[in-house]
Design brief:
10 strands; two-stranded antiparallel sheet; globular; alpha/beta; TIM Barrel; 301 residues
Amino acid sequence: MIMASARAKKQSLAIMLLIIALAMAVVAAEDQQPVELLVRGDDMGHTLDVNLGFIKAHTEGIVTSASLMPPSAYFDDAVKRCKDHPRLAPGVHVTLMATVPMRPVSPPDQVSSLIAPDGFFYHGLEDFLKAKPKIAEVEKEVRAQIQKCIDTGLRFIYLDWHMASSGGKDRPDIVELFQRLSREYKLLYTHDTQDVDGRYSGAKFFSASLEAWGSQRLPDGHLVYWCGPDLPEATRLKFLESLQKLQPGTWYTICHPGLYARRQAQSVAVLCSQDVKDIIHARGIRLISYTDLWNRKFNPK
């Protein structure tokens, strides 16, 4: 009788300890921050093949957000494709310089300090900074680009910049302007590769490193860029490893979809690959967009 009672007490204690352990595991699971991933594509509107690459990388892959270039030749096409795919969050990719010839949205005589001698935007940051564009003209052009986006009827979610158009540390006045206009137009501001700790958008940056860009100064002084050589297998494996090692938290990375340049097309192929999808599924990674981050900042529940 006594032995049976002792045995029952031991069983009861074991059950209680098991219940406590399970409860602690549930609490720990609830406290565990999930791994969230935002994959942003830059330069939508640049060319038609770029737009097609975006849609492929979104519908068949993991791209969730698209930065549109307002002065680009295929901007209207990009807008239409975004409207046809409402889960692809669009952003204003402020463009004050461009490798493919582009002109300002504003009348040229109102933003002359942004225009190179050939009548187009400067080709890169080096020439842009040497020209010392006037901040009042920069503001006029950025406002014109934002308004062009608004006038499409497509709801733009965020603002970032093309080819370091803010000038970084060399033009803090332009950085401040971008931040101020983001607040004014209620756009989520993202500081591209400098947002390593998530202070701006709420997502921390990690580099996908899928693309490589070469550049060369031509005899006439023009700086030209091109997409790099074929994607090395080591680069693909490094990207997969980065996904596998992502710690709990909210992360974003940047890519440049396209279907014409081999390196860009190969990058799209990686983003659409079964290897990537398997890692996303196995790790329970949540794919999010800038719409999710915008709602957290401006429309918290």
